[in-house]
From TrEMBL:
<protein>
    <recommendedName>
        <fullName>Biotin carboxylase</fullName>
    </recommendedName>
</protein>
Length: 140
């Protein structure tokens, strides 16, 4: 009886070792060449800031995403800080700004839509931007 338990345990151990799914490790993505421009009027018309009815300006943040791996990265969350011309936070208490659905190996373009309170003066300052995603799709 003990011998059967040991044998079954060994078989289960070997099978689980051989057929283990690949880990979904977080992959860091470098973001560079950041800039922004106002949204086209058809996108930004009537924008309000999150949770309020306060008027907002719509902007598109653009840049380059560098995936240094040889695999596509999926669902990469974008983190960063945005300040107005007076160094006031334009996105108070928000570090996660959005996401990039898919980043192939190498350098590729990305864009992110943001809304900033209309009373915050330009130019905006984009600081500490980075992204992190997964080597396989996790959100479907």
């Amino acid at each position: 009886m003990v011998l059967k338990v040991i044998l079954v345990s060994c078989v289960i151990g070997i099978v689980s070792w051989v057929f283990t799914p690949s880990a979904l490790a977080l992959t860091q993505i470098k973001l560079s060449e950041l800039s922004y421009h106002k949204c086209p009027s058809e996108i930004g018309k009537g924008s309000v800031t999150s949770g309020t009815t306060m008027a907002a300006n719509c902007f598109i943040v653009t840049g380059k995403a560098q995936n240094g791996t040889n695999k596509t990265v999926y669902d990469a969350d974008i983190f960063g800080r945005i300040y107005d011309a007076n160094n006031n936070s334009a996105m108070e208490n928000r570090n996660r700004l959005g996401s990039i659905k898919e980043i192939p190996p190498g350098v590729s373009d990305f864009e992110l839509r943001i809304s900033v309170a209309a009373n915050q003066p330009e130019p905006l300052k984009l600081k500490k931007f980075k992204a992190a995603g997964f080597s396989a799709q996790v959100r479907k």
